[in-house]
């Protein structure tokens, strides 16, 4: 089906609790971009771009501009099913990963609706129909009691896996926090930490040796550019290392696998879309490494596509961080809510992403650029 129109719609979705904080900054809302691709018969698909200026260099304004003025016009008249050709055309524009990722997702959503099939079936699935979840803690750094209370509350909902942010400048506090959490959380609770690349080589080695048996893995303890240190650390500790900033592209994943620097692959759908995410999954499969879908602070609209991807592939075998919208977003962007049961997100079975965008919400939170 020929592509007739490509739209970029900036939205500012408020967070329910005011702001989200982490080592390198904070956000008071999700300044995302909704991409709508319409075929010449009027059928459309949507994707969600989530800018991260501190990671990818993209802003809401830059995503809007490059789609409206550069990438979008490239797609007009193209067959929506010729995704490989479209990806090659977009490669003329350097970087802009989440802008391209949202276009890729919108194309899969469009094609699924044209075929009357959910995306997971177009990818060969479903392998599973419910996705075990990992809850990303949004509590205060080092506040052990609040975080334990949050874990206990979420375990009652069926969650068993929890990510805790560390790397706030005091490794003794990080060690104390995780040990106290482990002692006071319900039996069977799986805790892992996200350092956001904040440790030195010496700090990472000390923390991981101290927390052996306390945490199940560590996400990005060292800077992504420190390939030598990352490879040495992976050999020196038994704690699995989960990737994020070190595996933004397909080539990054290949390099980290060759180095032996990671043992779990984190996929963020907004930055690699479906086409590149599938390539990453196949690389992980060839190296016998498990994958998870990590949070990029998607709304429930973006999360629906994450569920489709996670449902399609056996290799996405780790609990996924795709429930962040729940409790943290102050508005829904879809008509029919996603269903979480006993700590698992259920696969929506409608065509494309399986859900329908709520254009009233888009209109309410649309912002001008």
List the helices and strands and how they pair.
Blueprint: E1 3-14, E2 20-22, E3 25-27, E4 29-39, E5 44-49, H1 60-75, H2 83-90, H3 97-115, H4 119-122, E6 130-132, E7 134-136, H5 144-155, E8 161-165, H6 171-184, E9 190-194, H7 201-210, E10 218-219, H8 227-236, E11 241-242, H9 250-259, E12 265-267, H10 269-272, H11 275-286, E13 291-293, H12 300-312, H13 325-328, E14 340-341, E15 344-346, H14 359-365
Parallel strand pairs: 7-8, 8-9, 9-10, 10-11, 12-13
Antiparallel strand pairs: 1-4, 2-3, 4-5, 6-15, 14-15
The total beta strand count reads 15
User: How do the SSEs run, as a string of H and E?
Assistant: EEEEEHHHHEEHEHEHEHEHEHHEHHEEH
Give the strand order of the largest sheet, numbering strands 1, 2, ... along the chain: 7-8-9-10-11
Count of helices? Answer: 14
Rg for CA atoms: 20 Å
- The rounded distance between the terminal residues' Cα atoms is 31 Å
Which residue ranges are poorly predicted, with pLDDT under 50 across at least 5 consecutive positions? none
What percent strand? 15-25%
Instruction: Specify the helix fraction band.
Output: 25-40%
Structural class by secondary-structure content: alpha/beta
């Amino acid at each position: 089906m020929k592509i007739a129109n490509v739209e970029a719609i900036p939205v500012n979705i408020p967070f329910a609790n005011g702001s989200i904080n982490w080592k390198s900054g904070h956000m008071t809302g999700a300044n995302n971009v909704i991409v709508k691709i319409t075929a010449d018969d009027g059928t459309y698909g949507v994707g969600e771009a989530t800018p991260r200026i501190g990671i990818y260099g993209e802003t809401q304004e830059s995503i809007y501009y490059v789609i409206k003025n550069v990438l979008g016009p490239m797609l007009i008249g193209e067959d929506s099913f010729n995704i490989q050709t479209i990806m090659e055309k977009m490669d003329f524009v350097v970087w802009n990963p989440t802008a391209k990722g949202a276009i890729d997702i919108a194309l899969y959503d469009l094609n699924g609706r044209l075929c009357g099939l959910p995306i997971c079936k177009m990818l060969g699935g479903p392998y599973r129909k419910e996705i075990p979840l990992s809850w990303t803690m949004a509590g205060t750094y080092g506040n052990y009691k609040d975080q334990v209370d949050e874990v206990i509350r979420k375990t009652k909902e069926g969650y068993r896996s929890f990510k805790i942010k560390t790397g706030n400048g005091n490794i003794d506090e990080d060690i104390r926090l995780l040990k106290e959490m482990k002692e006071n959380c319900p039996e069977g609770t799986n805790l892992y930490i996200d350092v956001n690349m904040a440790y030195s080589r010496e700090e990472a080695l000390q923390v991981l040796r101290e927390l052996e048996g306390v945490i199940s893995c560590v996400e990005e303890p060292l800077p992504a550019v420190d390939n030598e240190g990352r490879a040495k650390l992976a050999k020196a500790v038994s704690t699995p290392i989960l990737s994020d900033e070190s595996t933004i592209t397909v080539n990054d994943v290949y390099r980290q696998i060759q180095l032996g620097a990671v043992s779990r692959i984190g996929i963020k759908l907004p930055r690699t879309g479906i086409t590149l995410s599938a390539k990453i999954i196949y690389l992980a499969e060839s190296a016998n490494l498990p994958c998870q879908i990590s949070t990029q602070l998607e709304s429930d609209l973006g999360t629906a596509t994450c569920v489709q991807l996670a449902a399609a592939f056996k290799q996405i075998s780790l609990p996924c961080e795709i429930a962040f919208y729940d409790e943290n977003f102050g508005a829904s962007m879809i008509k029919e809510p996603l269903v979480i049961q006993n700590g698992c997100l259920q696969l929506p079975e409608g065509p494309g992403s399986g859900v329908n965008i709520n254009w009233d919400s888009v209109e309410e939170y649309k912002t001008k650029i």
